[in-house]
Amino acid sequence: MSWPVLVFDIESIPDVAGLRLLRHAPAEHTDAQVWEAWCQERKDKGQSDFMPLHLQRVLVISCVFRSGEGLRVHSFVDRDGASEGRVIQGFFNSIDKHVPQLVSWNGGGFDLPVLHYRGLQHGVVADKYWDLGEDDREFKWNNYIGRYHMRHMDLMDLLAMYQPRANAPLDAMAKLCGFPGKLGMDGGQVYDAYLGGQLEEIRRYCETDVMNTYLLYCRFQKMRGGFTQAEYEQEIDLVKGSLAALSGAEPHWREYLAAWG
């Protein structure tokens, strides 16, 4: 198996400002009123209140970066409510710098389209990510955009044989493989947590989710022969050691390791 690998996951919240603009909401209406009116309208029509992807405001992008130098966990966070563009640009800058294999769970169905729409809105530049072979001939046959290419591996999509009806939840697969799974909250609770000022809790939740994805990726590499059994066990030991080193300053990693048993 070759490095570097960048596993990523995003957490997003409804873009109420964008919703206000598109619905021509009266200025005197609060954000809560705009959001509640939209949700009620959807409910009356028997539709989901899940925001369309272009109205998902990116709050956190968490990454596990594995290179020949070791393993690192890092998050890009919109801490002031006005840095979404910088958060997305920082993520794509990492791709431009390292040209890693990207790994996600449902990244092709959610995370990347959200980043595309929001990046377009903010004027983000991601030339290496969008290279389809014009600048680098190797990217013609293996790029980040092609669904069946491996430069971005949507692990959920791949394991489901690209059949949506066969998709499996990250939390379920992580637990079935002996990993901790989700801790603290789930995606449906993120907006309420954000409104409650729990940005750090959201960041920690996103980091544990992306670690679950990395561990499933390691298990997949063992299944496909990318790791021998000994190499897989060494990688798991590396992950546990790396998280133990972080756990002094980050309590969610203590909880994660404890849940791992």
Write the layout of secondary structure elements.
Blueprint: E1 5-14, H1 16-23, H2 31-44, E2 56-67, E3 70-77, H3 84-98, E4 101-104, H4 107-122, H5 138-141, E5 152-154, H6 155-159, H7 170-176, H8 190-195, H9 199-224, H10 229-246, H11 251-260
Parallel strand pairs: 1-4, 4-5
Antiparallel strand pairs: 1-2, 2-3
Helix pairs in contact: 1-2, 3-4, 7-9, 9-10
| CATH structural architecture | 2-Layer Sandwich
| Quaternary form | single chain
Number of domains: 1
What is the C-alpha radius of gyration, as a whole number of Å?
19 Å
Helical proportion, percent range: 40-55%
Task: Name the structural class.
Answer: alpha/beta
Distance between the termini: 27 Å
Taken from the alpha-carbon principal axes, the silhouette is globular
Number of helices: 11
The poorly predicted ranges are none
Taking the sheet with the most strands, its summary is:
5 strands, mixed
CATH H level, superfamily name: Ribonuclease H-like superfamily/Ribonuclease H
**CATH fold-level assignment:** Nucleotidyltransferase, domain 5
